[in-house]
Amino acid sequence: MEKHRVEIVPMTETMLAEVIAIEADAFGAPGAAKHLASEREREWGYIDVSIVTPLHGKRFIAGYCNYWLVHDEIHLLNVATRATHKRQGHARRLLGHMIQFGHANQSRIITLEVRTSNTAAISLYRSIGWKDVGIRPRYYAETNEDAQVMLLELHRE
Are strands 45-54 and 60-70 parallel, antiparallel or unpaired? Predict the structure, then answer.
C-alpha cells in the first residue's frame, strides 16, 4: 500500500522559505534567499520541487532542482534533498524530470559542475549517464575546491 504521493511541480512563492531551508542546509549558503528569489525572476531559470503528500500528515518539499535553459542547452545549478529524506530517490526523480524537460524543449545537452569531493552526487550523475568532461580548478571560492564538469547528451529525434 502506498504511504505517500510524490509529485514534481514548479516552485511557487509560497514554497520559497522551505526551499531556502533545504538549500541552506545542503550548501551552507548564506545568500540562499536572494539567490533563489532572483532565479525565479529569470525567464530562462527554473526551480522544480519534489512534494511529498503523506497519507496522514502535512505535505512538504523533499527536494528541489534549479536549472537554466539557454538556447538548446540546460545547465544544472543545484539539486538538493531535505536531510531527512536523502537516499529516497528524490534527487533522481528531479533529475529525470529535468531531462524530460530537456527533451520536450529540444535540448542537446545538460551540463553541471559538482565538487570533486561530492562522490555521492558524482556517482548519481554517472548512473544516469553524465560523463566527466573536465575540471575547473579552485571553482568553489570559499574552499578553493575543484569542480568536476559533467555533460549529459540528450538524443534528439
Answer: antiparallel
125 catalytic residue (yes or no): yes
pTM of the model: 0.88
Total number of domains in the chain: 1
Contacts of 102 (CB under 8 A, 6+ apart): 69, 74, 110, 154
User: Which one of 23, 46, 67, 113 is the catalytic residue?
Assistant: 113
C-alpha cell, 70 = 539557454
Q: Which tens digits make up the pLDDT trace of 98-144?
A: 999 999 999 999 999 999 999 999 999 999 999 999 999 998 888 88
CATH of the domain at 111: 3.40.630.30
The active-site residue out of 46, 64, 67, 125 is 125
Whole domain around residue 90: which residue ranges? 4-153
